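All the exercises in this workshop are built on plain-text protein records. Sequence and backbone structure share a record, each on its own labelled line. The structure tokens are whole numbers drawn from a learned vocabulary of backbone shapes. The record below serves as our worked example for the rest of this section.
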Amino acid sequence: MTQASTILGLLAQTSIHAGTGQNTGIIDLPIQREGHNGWPCVFGSAMKGALRTRAETQYGKENASVIYVFGPSPSPSPNTNNASEHAGAIMVSDARLLLLPIRSLTSQFKWVTCPDALKRYQRDAERFGLTVGLLSSVNVEVEGDEALVATKEADGALFLEEYRFNAKSQDLSVAIKSIAQLMQRDDAEEVLQNQLVIVSNDMFAHLCQHATPVNAHIAIESETKTVKDGALWYEETLPPETLLYVGLSANPVRKPKGDKIKVPLPQDESGKWVLESITNLFRDRPWLQIGGNETVGMGWCAVKVLQGGQ
């Protein structure tokens, strides 16, 4: 079976709330996190739903680039009443965190990551058949209050949130070039040169838990224009400028059972066609909305297809 794979970089342009749907503490609406390390993420099921919604908007719900890429709709439609007739041909991973923007007294903000996040991105890229040269220029021994930066002038004290770090300059050019390939902005390498910071794994985990925005929300009585009784809740988000990445693997088109699917099979049934049905969505309009609160402008990401990924 011939697969085609790539990685999509997702650079948040607005706040993102991909929620868990349950309250785990004082935050009423927390964001999705990986269970073993607490890092924010967006689960693969949510990412696949966002990609399908975008494809349906651009191609139409009963187009081959939707039906055969994502599978038949689970709800009754003119073409199928049973989504089990065949599976979709695309596999979508979780959207994993690579850079978290953190407030800083040193500049407007810093893009913070850690050795484990960089190593995992490299492993994920290899799993999808891609090559990224991250760690050849990164000293992975970052401990305690150390922080690696790319700008020599930044040596000395570095403040992230309320924490003071001992900044040490290092050649991060290879890492910067690799990360920039995931960012949909022309000046990515330039801004990373000034704003990329690598902290220890433990400190990154702490920042992931305690440096994400939590906003209070209320509901207003339309007649009295006052707050409804008990209508106060706290919602966690990922901030704008967060960098995530999601892996895509495409199989050849799966043949439906019987003749219940009325949409004709595409002329090209290869995994390459399946993958291009998704990557082509972002050629002219490289944006994707993920998570909730779309009607108040949340969840918008600039999408970059990793070069050489197809």
